[in-house]
Amino acid sequence: MSLKHDIEFTLNGVKRRVSVDVTMNALAMLRDVIGLTGTKYGCGEGECGACTIQVDGASLNSCLMFAVDCDGRNVTTIEGLANDGRADALLDAFVEHGAVQCGFCTPGMVMQADHLLHKHPHPDEACVKRGIEGNLCRCTGYKKIVDAIVAADGV
Amino acid sequence: MNVAEKKPRIIQPDSLIGKRIQKMDAPEKASGRTRYIHDINLSGQLYGKILRSARIHALIKSIDTTAAKALPGVHVVITAADIPDQRPIGVAKDHFPLKVGRVRSERDEIAAVAAESEEIAEAALKLIKVEYEDLPVIGNPEDAIKPGAALIHPEPHGADGSHMHLKQGTSIAHKGKPDNIAMRFDYAHGDVVQGEAESDVVIEDTFRLHYVTHCCMGVSGMIAEFDASGNLLMYSNTQVPFLHKREFAEYLNMDPARIRIIQPPIGGGFGSKLDIYPFEVICLYLARAAKRPVKMLFTREEEFLASPTRQPVLLTLRSGCKKDGTLTFRQVHTLHDNGAYTSWGATTPFVMMQTFSSLYRVPHCDYHTAAVYTNNPYAGSFRGYGNLQATFAIEQHMDMLAEKIGMDPLEFRMKNAQDASEVTGQGMSFKSCGFKECITTAATRSDYSRKFRENAANRNQPGNIKRGIGMASMLHVGGGAKIYPSDGCGTILKMDDFANVTLITGASEIGQGSETVLSQLVCEELGLPISAVTVVNNDTAITPWDVGVHASRTTFIAGNSAIGAAKKAKAKILAVAAKKYEAAESDLDLRGGFVIKADSGEAIVELSKLLRNLHFQDKAELVMTTFYYEPPSVHQDKGFKGDVSAAYAWGTQVVEVEVDTDTGFTRLVKVTGAHDVGRVLNRLGIEGQIEGGIVMGQGYAFTEDLMIENGVMKNPNFRDYKLVTAPEIPEMDIAFIESMDGEGPQGAKGVGEAPSICMAAAAANAIANATGVRMFELPFTPEKVYRALHGQTPKLYWKPWRAE
Amino acid sequence: MTELKHYFAPTSLDQAVECLKDGDVTILAGGTDLTPQSQAGRIKIKHTLMNVRHIPQLSGITLEGKEIRIGALATITEIMEHPLVREHLPVLVEACDHFASDQIRNAGTIGGNICNASPAGDTLIPLLVLDAWELASMPEAKLYRHCMPLSTFFVGPGKTRKSLCELVTCVRIPVPAENHVARFYKHGTRPALDISTISIGVAGTLKDGILSNVRVAFGAVAPTPVRASQTEQALEGQRLDAATIDKVAAVARDEVKPIDDVRATAWYRKEMIHNITKRILSHVAQA
């Protein structure tokens, strides 16, 4: 049987305790143990960004993080961001600008965009494109995603 | 008693057509609430995993599943031996889901496990012992047609070595073949011998089109559950649910009425889900054997290894023209690598023929394809479906012919581009045709002619950065494609007591925005806001038949179907209103949620009120209508001739590049596109389709390369298979030509595949303009371009060959 | 299934080195490399998984005398945004900017990068031309027991001289003197999220058009990132005129012995080493 470890961390503003397999990655913990399926599996190797979450105020790929490493930290997933209200302008911009087609890459994009806008509140197109270079999209060709993020602005 | 006369309320005309309409499911998707197949879990489900071959081409001597079966948590382990009534699947019925006796490629499925968790299932796979006896590997189609080549699907022989003769109509999987030719296509119109005789210039070149793959962001998956009565419920991302229902019924020996397919929102399609693949049937076998729901999801690596690819093509094109610029003939031979089993890739000649015969006016055309078995992955259908490959060759030859006769490449194209009401040699009737306008619009907006001249003049000047501009156009079906017995789509429409519409359509939504467009069309007919419509489109138990999402047909055919149902509803409503308000039906209309006087816009009654009155009167009635739309296209005859689509669409793209001759790195700077779409319906949606298609075409031209060597995939991951990332996208200037197709819904034509089709061709022309060097192979990676610039790339030549 | 029996997250360096005594420990820092590799089965996690992210001595970026000390846990983002690095080590900022993606930069650590020892490691090339040293702690000693110039630290793809009982604690980089110039170039198709086809780092003291104290490092052309000694010799003390630059570029091309792989062929890599060395030196000359 695999080694388990208990961790305690804040998830979307709520403190909680979870028992996880030590070898499990954070993505699997979020999806399979906790049941939050908004964060997506795209590749499991950090090459596509579909699994992007925010930890202690920075965006990172949850597939590249050990679940146990969430201990004591502040984790936000798309569910938390969407319910928060602080990202409403960003989510609205995605919808208004047609930045969503199949939508599979969208949660990861939104998480990364939110982080980007916190660091660079008024990014230009070039800054946005570099900022989302770790997020793959196969449907939109990125143009409307970039437009949405520039329009959302870090108000 | 007289109340002051109420001032008549005037409803101003307003149209949804051409507006920017937000995708209806976007808010849910953006907030992570959408549940894709990966996010759906049935209680009591098991997890299915497939053991794939460790060899490329080998006999299976034995499979030992004892240890796997004994692992705690494993419910079922199956191999072909456990499914004696297994039937072959696929376009040529040459493909057993669980392999029998022999493996023919890296992706071949040997065994499958259903277990309590994914980890246990994977551990069980490792415990399955397989013994193989290697057979010679055929890694390319040229080797497969050599005399004495190993046969991939040999004919069966008896124990005494004698040839077994099986019944007529036995599938290839049982019958085998005496050679490696999976399919052949031969087409001709006119007489190429005469065409060549009339030519002043003849050129012949070989082009090689490579393997790329769909890379949908959501990996493949399926959930299957048999209920207590043996009815089957499948969650599947198929793009053709009704065709699949019928086929799965065959494979399971079931009544199709007992199969229900629910389509969860899809994480990308692009044509990858148009065939039935082994993993789907295997998942059903597991569910049947385990008597529990089984969920099967691919890993990304498995997605690369086991999904169909785009059809790789080796082709030699011979083209001619007169010195006055008239095209005379095209003769083309292609060798299609069919892989180990036949899927839709083998049928790309249907589309390729259309391009060779009818993109520009071609008096004489001769086309031959041999699709040949190898031990490589098989190809399926992929956005553009052979048209990218054909256009790559044709549009380079257009530039090369123009150059040979000393004619301006733009003028050369305009001379040979067709006009409306022309009928091509293949019998395609161009009722609406915006071809020339596409060319001139793209050329003017990009300042093509001036840049073309300046870049050519700059070629030998000092400086390592060379600019290039290149043009290519495409022709594709825009009104469906009559390849199945029906190319139709059914709609059921109902209205409730509050003038809300439920639109039940057979057409699937695969992320392209069909839901939103269909709602838009219905609202336009009924004068309602887009928020009034709910679309139901994902359950075969409820929705009427549609052949599927392919051939850029959904807006056209499902659109016309939805309009048909809406028109019927409108007619009924106006008939009721006419009677009630003593007016003539033709004097009335629907607008802004009201029944109005057509001439003045004066509101007569709120629509919802009228509907409630209709419902709650003595002779109660609801507004419910149905419509099945079959486009007025025809099946092609045995010579592949016929007006196979109800409409055709064109697009021209002008591509600008910067080539760094020190490194070969070629930056895609700008794409100027002009697309004949008939009519723009949802402007936001159509822009998204074009932009996405351009970037997909960019990947095909510059960055994506699925490297397969002797049947082994070298880069089944995103690290080394390069999708285009955000910083790499070009500037895009897109114009829409609205040729207003008579048959199309509100005049619209299909556009889903169009924007990917000419990118590679235009890019090749741009690189030639920049450097004077022609690229006959894809992709244009820095190393490939650098090698070409330094004369390190031997000129490709494949001697035209056709099957006997 | 792993042999993993024990998970430990020490909060001090002493605790960590004590745990490393028997050497059967897999170290977890940023996780950007260990997580996918272990999930894919390419790395087997040992008896103990030790999460070092809570050890205070491993973080921070400080100026200590004439050296900049970058803690092993400094993330790539922290490094490229830190004022000390931006002021004194712009070539390292340049390399960090081309590293993977924002998400990976936010989590990946310099210590992890160094120990991962990728032949194409982007951050490793500037560290080599900046004469960086790695420092590690071992169980038998209290503080910095082991320090080594980074140029001798790498021995093969994924292999370093670090023993199983050592924990890399920081990297120390001498603050470059006046007239120091340094350049980094990564060749690939994308700005980042790309394993380089080749990468080049060049540094030295430029005075009156002459380059001295030359350091040249190449990535993705050998089993490890390497200092190019022949190229350095050809460049040392030379005036950066067109003839010299041509000659040095040719030496560089001949010095490297790359392989063919899925990303590029050896021939192309050699061509790029030549062309880009030439380009970099021309830019330095014009500086």
Pick out its properties.
heterotrimer; A: 155 residues; alpha+beta; 5-stranded mixed sheet; 6 helices; 36% helix; globular; C: 287 residues; 5-stranded antiparallel sheet; 12 helices; 15 strands
Distance between the termini of chain B: 94 Å
The total count of helices of chain B amounts to 21
Morphology call of chain C: globular
Q: What is the H/E string of chain C?
A: EHEHEEEHHHHHHEEHEEEEEEEHEHH
Q: What is the terminal separation of chain C in angstroms?
A: 56 Å
Rounded to an integer in angstroms, the radius of gyration calculated over CA atoms of chain C is 19 Å
Oligomer: heterotrimer
Weakly predicted, low-confidence segments of chain B = none
Report Rg of chain B.
28 Å
| Sheet/helix structural class of chain C | alpha+beta
Strand ordering within the main sheet of chain B = 3-5-1-12-9-10-11
Helicity of chain B, as a percent range:
25-40%
Cross-sheet strand order for the largest sheet of chain C: 4-5-10-6-7
Q: Specify the overall morphology of chain B.
A: globular
Secondary structure: number of strands of chain C: 15
- Biggest β-sheet of chain C, characterized? 5 strands, antiparallel
Instruction: Give the low-confidence spans of chain C.
Output: none
* Average pLDDT level of chain B: 94
Alpha plus pi helix count of chain C: 12
Largest interface: A-B, 52 and 55 residues
Main beta-sheet annotation of chain B:
7 strands, mixed
How would you characterize this protein structure?
Chain A has a five-stranded mixed sheet, with helices on both faces. Chain A has helices at residues 26-34, 78-84, 88-96, 106-119, 125-131, 143-152; strands at 4-11, 14-21, 52-55, 58-61, 74-76. With 155 residues, chain A is α+β, with helices and mostly antiparallel strands. In chain A, strand 1 (4-11) and strand 2 (14-21) form a beta hairpin. Chain A is built from six helices and five strands. Chain A is globular. Chain B has 804 residues and is of the alpha+beta class. Chain B is 27% helix and 23% strand. Chain B has a seven-stranded mixed sheet, with helices on both faces. A five-stranded mixed sheet of chain B has the order 7-15-14-13-8. The longest helix of chain B is centred in the C-terminal third of the chain and has 27 residues, at 554-580. The mean pLDDT of chain B is 94. Chain C is α+β, with helices and mostly antiparallel strands and 287 residues long. Helix content of chain C is 34%, strand content 26%. In chain C, the strands form four sheets. Chain C has a five-stranded antiparallel sheet, sandwiched between helices. In chain C, helix 2 (34-39) links the parallel strand 2 and strand 3. In chain C, helix 11 (242-255) runs antiparallel to helix 12. In chain C, 52% of the residues are buried. Classes of the chains: A alpha+beta (155), B alpha+beta (804), C alpha+beta (287).
